[in-house]
Every structure is written in C-alpha cells, then in structure tokens.
Amino acid sequence: MLDVQNLTVGYGQRAILSDISFTVEPGEVVAILGANGVGKSTLLRTLAGLQPGLAGTVALDGRTITRTAAHKRVALGLCLVPEGQQSFPAMSVQENLWLGASLHARGRSETERAVEPVLDLFPKLAERRSQLAGTLSGGERQMLAIGRALLARPTVLMLDEPSHGLAPIIVEQLGERIAEIARETSVLVVEQNLAVPARAATRVLVLDEGRITREGRPEEILHNEDVIHAYLGV
Ligand SMILES: Nc1ncnc2c1ncn2[C@@H]1O[C@H](COP(=O)(O)OP(=O)(O)OP(=O)(O)O)[C@@H](O)[C@H]1O
C-alpha cells in the first residue's frame, strides 16, 4: 500500500532523516515515535509531497509517487492531517465537512449524505454541527480535521501528533476512533504520546538520530522502559 524505501529527508542539503524504509499495509495503524525535533513532521510533510525528499522512493498502491505533486497525492489517496487541527474557523462544523466532501460528492443531498459516516464516527461533531469551528475545543477541532481528511476517502491517512495539547481522556478516545478508522483506511501516525499507539497501533517504529532504530508490535516497544527512556526521553 504505502511503501517507503531508503528515504532521506531534510532541508537544503542537511539531512534530518536518512535511509528510512517501512511499509504501511491495508488495515494497519503504523505509529512512528520519536522525541521532539527528531524529524517526524518533516517525514510526513515529505510523504505528502509538501517538500522534496533528498533521496529514496515513495510508492502508493504500487505506483511511484516520489515526484508527484502534493494535490495529486491526495487524489491518489494519501492524505495528511497536519499538527494544529486546521479547519475554517468562521465556518460551522457541517460547512467544514461539506467542503471536505466536495472532492467526491456532487450536489447538496449527496454532500450531506457523504458526511453522515463522519458524524457517526464522531458523535461530538454531530452534536455541534451548527457551531463555528473556531469555537470548538482542541479535541473537537482535532476530530473535525480528521473527519475532513476522511471525506477525501484516503487509502492511507497520515496524522501528525493528533494528541498534541489534548487532555488524557480525549487522547484515549482519539486512539479508539483511530482504531475504528483503520477498519477501512490504513493510518500512519507520528506521536510522542504513547497513549495513541497503545490504543490503536498494529506496529510501532522508533525514530532516533535520523534513523529507525526499533520496530515491533506495540507490546514489544511501548512496555519496554529502556526503549521509552532512551528514545523518547519520557
Ligand atoms: N523549514 C525548515 N527549515 C530548516 N530546518 C527545519 C525546518 N523545519 C524543521 N526544521 C528542523 O528539522 C528538524 C526536525 O523538525 P520536525 O519538525 O520534523 O521534528 P518533529 O520530530 O516533528 O518535532 P516535534 O515533535 O517537536 O514536533 C528540527 O531540527 C527542526 O529545527
């Protein structure tokens, strides 16, 4: 599905991550863990086509997209929800979702029908459908950002630190929703918080000093205190 081989990413000629290889298979939630500044956002931005890789290849469903423009990657099914929960603050929750649906849906009734599964997945958004997005809580804004991305019908959804700034109970709920999303859409999530991978990940990779240093099932990585201390500084 998503196949990343020997990817080197960075700024100018300065490599931040070197020789990164991994895959995301159908139905998987792959979590990439790493300390502040290790290059997690840089990796996702590169996969999304928002900045060029320095070396290596990226393929989606067998098709090489290493040099494909960002908007075309979205149309092919690779969607990024960046950190910061961007939506349109002066538009209501449902208007934000309608806009997300407009990539595939035609006309008002088709658009309204298209957003129903997202409102089912996030009942809080259904309750607040007429509220302005700018007045939502941080957790609700995150759900809205994920909901909008889902409306693009991605085959791989990439989430950049979705737990950032959220209360622990909301992070747990978010982890559960991500596990639900993975029944239809593969997920690649970068995190520092262990609660999201603990609830949703099928595989965990650890980034340290520019490389993937560990890879395993969540129970192998997340309960290994040496790994957690050494690589995440928590
Ligand atoms: N536009 C840029 N130009 C040059 N260097 C950058 C740029 N953006 C990020 N960096 C540097 O690249 C490194 C990795 O940054 P990145 O934001 O990818 O890390 P991160 O793992 O996502 O961090 P955090 O967990 O703190 O969000 C950092 O040293 C950062 O200062």
Short summary of the structure?
It contains 10 helices and 10 strands. It has helices at residues 40-47, 70-76, 93-101, 107-121, 123-127, 138-150, 168-181, 195-200, 218-221, 225-232; strands at 2-11, 14-24, 29-33, 55-60, 63-64, 78-81, 156-160, 186-191, 203-208, 211-216.
Question: What features would you describe in this structure?
Answer:
Belongs to the ABC transporter superfamily. This protein has 234 residues and is an alpha/beta fold. The chain has a domain of 163 residues: Rossmann fold, CATH 3.40.50.300. The chain is built from 10 helices and 10 strands. The chain has a 6-stranded mixed beta sheet with strand order 6-7-8-3-9-10, sandwiched between helices. The radius of gyration is 17 Å and the shape is globular. The mean pLDDT is 91. The protein binds adenosine-5'-triphosphate (ATP). Adenosine-5'-triphosphate binds next to helix 1. Adenosine-5'-triphosphate (ATP) binds next to helix 1.
Ligand catalogue: adenosine-5'-triphosphate
Main β-sheet description: 6 strands, mixed
Say which CATH homologous superfamily of the domain at 2-85 and 154-232 is assigned.
Answer: P-loop containing nucleotide triphosphate hydrolases
| Spatial separation of the terminal alpha carbons | 32 Å
